[in-house]
C-alpha cells in the first residue's frame, strides 16, 4: 500500500483525471518546443507560477525579451535542479575570479572551487561535488538544532567559495536553515572582503510548504543574497515522480551560464536542462494540480499536513516506559510551525535499550509501514560526539 510509505517524500497517489493527464504527456517531447508550442507554454506557465510563489524579481525588459517567462526551468526532479543551480554558481564564480585576477582562470592558478553546505544535504549535492570537482565545505549541525548557524558558515568562506546552500526542510528533521540570518552575515563578509558569495536555497521539500506558513522569516528572493531556488514538484508540489523546478534571480550572470541554444529541431530555442528529450508528464500533472488546487488548496493541504504531524508528535511525546516512566523517544524535529510537516525522533538513549533506531525501522517494515532511518552526521552536545 503506497499510503504506508512515510519515508520517500514522493507523491504517488493520483486522481483518475490526473492519471489521464499524465498519459497525455507521455506522447509529448518537451525538447521539441517548436513542434509542441502549447505544451511548452504550459511549462512556462508553471514556471511563472513557481517563480511568483517564490517572489522572483520581475525585470520587464528581460521578461519580455525571453518570451514572457522568468529565468528557470522544469527539471526531472530536484537533483537536476540542484545540479543546474550548482553549475551556474560555479560559472558565475569563475567569471568573477578571472576579472579579479586580470584574466587568469582558477585552474591556471591552481584554485579549486568550494561550496558551503550542511552535512544534512541530499544526495544531489554529492553528485555535484564529484561531477564538477567542487570541494564540499561541510558544516555539522547538532542534535539540538539541525540547521546552519551563520557563525559556523562565515569561517568556511574564502575567495574560492562559489556559494552557500541553505536547505529549506532537510529530510532528517524537516528544519529550515535561517536564510535571512546567513544572508546578513554574507552581506557583511562580501563588503569586507570584496567577495560575491550568494545563496542557493535547496527547497526540495520546503518550496511548496514554506510559502504557505505565515510569519515565516523571508527565505526566498525577497532576500537579496538568494541567487537561485530549487524544489521537487513531486514532493509537496503534489506532481508525479520526475518533476522539479529551478528559478534564478536573473538571467545575466546566472541562468545565462546554463542556456544552450538549439536549432536542429527547427527554429531557435534555449535549453536550460541537463536532460534534453523528456516527456511532458510531470509538467502536465503539475499544471493540473496548480489549476485543481490553487493557492487556497495548497494552503489547506499544508495546514492539514502540519496538523496531522502535530497529532503524531504529541502521541510520541506522551509515550513513556512502563518501568522507568521516562519518555520512550527523544524528539528531534522543529516542532509544529516553521518546519516541514514531518516528525523526527530517536529512541531515548537514557533507557539503555539494546536495539537502535535502524532495528526499529526494520521491525516496522515487517508490518509494511515504511519510515526513514538515519545514522546522523551531527554533533551531539550531550556526548561531544
TrEMBL record:
<dbReference type="GO" id="GO:0030170">
    <property type="term" value="F:pyridoxal phosphate binding"/>
</dbReference>
<dbReference type="InterPro" id="IPR015421">
    <property type="entry name" value="PyrdxlP-dep_Trfase_major"/>
</dbReference>
<dbReference type="InterPro" id="IPR010107">
    <property type="entry name" value="Glutamate_decarboxylase"/>
</dbReference>
<protein>
    <recommendedName>
        <fullName>glutamate decarboxylase</fullName>
        <ecNumber>4.1.1.15</ecNumber>
    </recommendedName>
</protein>
<keyword id="KW-0456">Lyase</keyword>
<comment type="similarity">
    <text>Belongs to the group II decarboxylase family.</text>
</comment>
<keyword id="KW-0663">Pyridoxal phosphate</keyword>
<dbReference type="InterPro" id="IPR002129">
    <property type="entry name" value="PyrdxlP-dep_de-COase"/>
</dbReference>
<dbReference type="GO" id="GO:0004351">
    <property type="term" value="F:glutamate decarboxylase activity"/>
</dbReference>
<dbReference type="GO" id="GO:0006538">
    <property type="term" value="P:L-glutamate catabolic process"/>
</dbReference>
<dbReference type="Pfam" id="PF00282">
    <property type="entry name" value="Pyridoxal_deC"/>
</dbReference>
<feature type="modified residue" description="N6-(pyridoxal phosphate)lysine">
    <location>
        <position position="235"/>
    </location>
</feature>
<dbReference type="InterPro" id="IPR015424">
    <property type="entry name" value="PyrdxlP-dep_Trfase"/>
</dbReference>
<dbReference type="GO" id="GO:0005829">
    <property type="term" value="C:cytosol"/>
</dbReference>
Amino acid at each position: 500500500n503506497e499510503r504506508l510509505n512515510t519515508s520517500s517524500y514522493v507523491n504517488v497517489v493520483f486522481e483518475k483525471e490526473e492519471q489521464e493527464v499524465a498519459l497525455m504527456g507521455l506522447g509529448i517531447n518537451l525538447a521539441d518546443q517548436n513542434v509542441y508550442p502549447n505544451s511548452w507554454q504550459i511549462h512556462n506557465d508553471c514556471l511563472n507560477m513557481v517563480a511568483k510563489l517564490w517572489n522572483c524579481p520581475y525585470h520587464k525588459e528581460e521578461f519580455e525579451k525571453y518570451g514572457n517567462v522568468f529565468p528557470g526551468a522544469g527539471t526531472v526532479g530536484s537533483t537536476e535542479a540542484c545540479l543546474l543551480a550548482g553549475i551556474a554558481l560555479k560559472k558565475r564564480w569563475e567569471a568573477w575570479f578571472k576579472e579579479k585576477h586580470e584574466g587568469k582562470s582558477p585552474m591556471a592558478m591552481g584554485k579549486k572551487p568550494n561550496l558551503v553546505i550542511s552535512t544534512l544535504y541530499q544526495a544531489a549535492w554529492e553528485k555535484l561535488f564529484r561531477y564538477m570537482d567542487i570541494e564540499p565545505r561541510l558544516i555539522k549541525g547538532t542534535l539540538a538544532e539541525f540547521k546552519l548557524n551563520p557563525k559556523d558558515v562565515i569561517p568556511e568562506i574564502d575567495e574560492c567559495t562559489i556559494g552557500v546552500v541553505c536547505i529549506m526542510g532537510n529530510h532528517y528533521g524537516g528544519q529550515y536553515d535561517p536564510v535571512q540570518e546567513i544572508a546578513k552575515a554574507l552581506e557583511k563578509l562580501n563588503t569586507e572582503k570584496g567577495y560575491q558569495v550568494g545563496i542557493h536555497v535547496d527547497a526540495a521539500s520546503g518550496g511548496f510548504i514554506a510559502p504557505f506558513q505565515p510569519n515565516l522569516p523571508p527565505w526566498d528572493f525577497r532576500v537579496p543574497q538568494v541567487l537561485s531556488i530549487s524544489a521537487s514538484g513531486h514532493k509537496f508540489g503534489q506532481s508525479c515522480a520526475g518533476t522539479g523546478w529551478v528559478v534564478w534571480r536573473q538571467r545575466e550572470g546566472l541562468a545565462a551560464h546554463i542556456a544552450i541554444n538549439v536549432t536542429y529541431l527547427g527554429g531557435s530555442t534555449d535549453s536550460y536542462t541537463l536532460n534534453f528529450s523528456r516527456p511532458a508528464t510531470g509538467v502536465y500533472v503539475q499544471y493540473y494540480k496548480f489549476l485543481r488546487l490553487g493557492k487556497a488548496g495548497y494552503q489547506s493541504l499544508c495546514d492539514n499536513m502540519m496538523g496531522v504531524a502535530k497529532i503524531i508528535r504529541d502521541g510520541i511525546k506522551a509515550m513513556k516506559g512502563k518501568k522507568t516512566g521516562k519518555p520512550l523517544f527523544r524528539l528531534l524535529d522543529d516542532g509544529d510551525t516553521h518546519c516541514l510537516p514531518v516528525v523526527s525522533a530517536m529512541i531515548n538513549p537514557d533507557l539503555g535499550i539494546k536495539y537502535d533506531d535502524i532495528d526499529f525501522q526494520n521491525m516496522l517494515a515487517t508490518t509494511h509501514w515504511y519510515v526513514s532511518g538515519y545514522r546522523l552526521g551531527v554533533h551531539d552536545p550531550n556526548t561531544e560526539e
